């Protein structure tokens, strides 16, 4: 009898949790918060109160009503980087701040938007449960209108944890995983935790624009924007204004079931490209005349992306992607947002002659894409699906699949209107099993199931966006048949480093042979999305030796020479722009991946100077 009572209590608790903590709606992050004469934004960045909860007793003890014995923490910020005693701590913590909501916001809908809580978060407002989100590097938002207290400070409390699990994406604590490290992540970068990006309040009118999707195209000198608008509140009219090159084009909107779609024709269009990243201003208005209920402004570029057997085509012309993989990683900041670091990194990439980067291995802070739009960088937008695998426990597999499905939805909703993004990367180095190199042990049944699951993710991306290319990045010894799903063959390769270490010549021959084989089989353009070698800054040798700056430079040179000899190689991304923090492991001296051509604090190594000379044609 006592067991029946126990399970009844547990079941009721789950029902209570599901009722009190609703899941966030991805549609609420489709439009970034903006300040204009109708909408409002209040950034809550600053020093918050913070408390560790290693026993997970905070909710039972009602810490959501206010934290006692707390310490200070910066938001945004990674707790592992701010406190030495919490460097490897990944369990529960609590954040608290207080804020007034301006009285001028009365009568509007008020939302809270958390731009990244790694990995899962619960939110309370004024002691009342609000909502729950699971997943990292993507924002989530909740309507808090009914919870707001006017004229007094409002208490905001967020519980966060970043426990590593095989059920999550990216995965951790995987039996036989690829990286034997501490903390036990199944990926090669440090699992920084917390509120790593800003938290903001924003308001919208009672009838408002919920989503805007812009798909550009052109034919000859005539450009076109297909604009789809979704609204809330039943207003049935509106307008789209497109301004550029001194002219404004105005098109009416007619909503049916809160949805409208129009085509905007742009004569004498000015195309977006790295050499001329021209952006058109788009203003969408809900309502007409003096009854303008909502206004939203954004920028877009007119360009097309396609492929042939040998090249990626931007606006119908072949383009070669020169660039880097990057990480949002910097001393003291961990993985937290910093506009200063974004500006610095873009400056270094331009200095080196790069025109592109991949958001390794997760969606970046939105300011990266805004700046890429303005500066003309080509971006491969990547999900957090790093180290993804499709075997093992059925429940874990299904939870990973669900996580990936949601990630794709959230990432594409947030980032879909950036002209800089030319490709979506579904996953980095996925495999059938958790352990890289174990592919030969998979049965045909396991391989087929893995392929089918992976294919579903590709179909999801293509259904949502038919204007960009889709790819994944293949790992050494990984399955190659999966490239049937892609528009571009993208591989990470380290022949001459992890395999045949010290032998750059053999490594170059191996990558050359492999590229030929892949292109002959799939007849698709190829790119190497990672290649490089660790180099300890200041370590030198007359003859290139592993871990010296000379070896790193010669390794990169050899791979670039191979690419130059093949007309079907359409891009080369050096791994990495800058050294970055990792978990502790035998192959990571000092817990750093030292493959950056810049040090972690952005000082150039010999390879950076070499790339500057080569990529700038000097």
Search tags:
single chain, Immunoglobulin-like, 8-stranded parallel barrel
Folded structure, characterized:
It is a single chain. Among the domains are: 20-204, Jelly Rolls, CATH 2.60.120; 208-292, Sandwich (Immunoglobulin-like); 355-487, Glycosidases (TIM Barrel, Alpha-Beta Barrel), CATH 3.20.20.80. The protein is globular and about 70 Å long. α5 runs parallel beside α6 (444-464). The strands form nine sheets. An eight-stranded parallel barrel has the order 26-27-28-29-30-31-32-33, surrounded by four helices. The chain has a seven-stranded mixed beta sheet with strand order 1-9-8-11-5-3-4. It is of the alpha/beta class and 618 residues long. β14 and β15 (222-232) form a beta hairpin. The protein contains nine helices and 35 strands. Mean pLDDT is 94; it is low at 1-18.
